[in-house]
């Protein structure tokens, strides 16, 4: 079974500064995907960024980037130029590689405990 | 932009009552999921559904829970006899078919309160 650990229950950052949220995971799988989801006060889960484990290059999406260290099973999220709208709970999530019909993976996500990020003006 | 829609947004029910939480996934998606989040805690997988049958379920998803896709558009989660500990936010999610379709789209959630 996979486990995902976020060791920072809460983080805060000043507007326009950079913050890094940590995530580690444990798996025996070689092919998988990692995600960061954002949950603002509205409670809806919004995908921020994804990383395929077979890709060495770290994913980036505008102000969001990841530091993926496969050997260390680490997947941190860096938010640059933080904005007030970034205030939210952030979840790291793991998904096994989908194996198709008859396989054992149908896209189940395993989430970490979450990190509450507060961006201060 | 297509989205996953859940109804109701908030449901209050008495312990022991049956509840049905409803979801309308994105129309061309083929994988459907229910997750729950007890207040302040992490999001937990309940069940995945593909090709009109459960493909995977967690230990939480016991005999009190069932899922159904009754009409090709709705996807429902039924809790037969609610307990106080079923109080949580329930999220429906859906995903496209295909090995490269990794993103799960979530609904806005249904807050279930059991009193």
Number of helices of chain B: 0
User: Termini of chain A, distance in Å?
Assistant: 41 Å
Strand content of chain B: over 45%
- Rg of Cα set of chain B: 13 Å
Strand content of chain A: over 45%
Low-confidence stretches of chain A: none
Query: What structural class do helix, strand and pairing data of chain A support?
Result: mainly beta
Outline the biggest β-sheet of chain B: 7 strands, mixed
Structural class computed from helices and strand pairing of chain B: mainly beta
Helix content of chain A: under 10%
Number of beta strands of chain B: 11
Order of helices and strands of chain A: EEEEEEEEEEEE
Global morphology of chain A? globular
Unreliable sequence segments of chain B: none
Provide the residue-averaged pLDDT of chain A: 91
* SS field, number of helical segments of chain A: 0
Q: Which oligomerization state do the chains in this entry correspond to?
A: heterodimer
Instruction: Indicate the overall shape of chain B.
Output: globular
Radius of gyration of chain A: 14 Å
Give an overview in words.
The complex is a heterodimer of chains A (121) and B (115). Chain A is built from no helices and twelve strands. In chain A, strands 2, 5, 6, 10, 11 and 12 form a six-stranded mixed beta sheet that branches. In chain A, β7 and β8 form a beta hairpin. Chain A is globular, with a radius of gyration of 14 Å. Chain B is mainly beta. Chain B has no helices and eleven strands. In chain B, the strands form two sheets. In chain B, strands 2, 4, 5, 6, 9, 10 and 11 form a seven-stranded mixed beta sheet that branches. In chain B, a hairpin with a 6-residue loop joins β7 and β8. The chains are: A mainly beta (121), B mainly beta (115).
């Amino acid at each position: 079974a996979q486990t995902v650990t976020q060791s920072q229950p809460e983080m805060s950052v000043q507007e326009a500064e950079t913050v890094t949220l940590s995530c580690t995971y444990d798996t025996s799988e070689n092919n998988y995907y990692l995600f960061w989801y954002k949950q603002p006060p509205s409670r809806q889960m919004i995908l921020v960024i994804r990383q395929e484990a077979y890709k060495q290059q770290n994913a980036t999406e505008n102000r969001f980037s990841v530091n993926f260290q496969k050997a260390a099973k680490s997947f941190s999220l860096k938010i640059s130029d933080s904005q007030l709208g970034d205030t939210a709970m952030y979840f790291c999530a793991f998904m096994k590689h989908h194996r198709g019909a008859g396989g054992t993976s149908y896209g189940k996500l395993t989430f970490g405990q979450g990190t509450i990020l507060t961006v201060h003006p | 932009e297509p989205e996953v829609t859940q109804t109701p947004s908030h449901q209050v029910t008495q312990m022991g009552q049956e509840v049905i939480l409803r979801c309308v996934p994105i129309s061309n998606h083929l994988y459907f999921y229910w997750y729950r989040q007890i207040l302040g805690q992490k999001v937990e997988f309940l069940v995945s559904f593909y090709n009109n049958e459960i493909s995977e379920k967690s230990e939480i998803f016991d005999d009190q829970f069932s899922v159904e896709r009754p009409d090709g558009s709705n996807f429902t989660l039924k809790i037969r006899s609610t307990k106080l500990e079923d109080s949580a936010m329930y999220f429906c999610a859906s995903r496209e078919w295909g090995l490269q379709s990794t993103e799960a789209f979530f609904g806005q959630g249904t807050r279930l309160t059991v009193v």
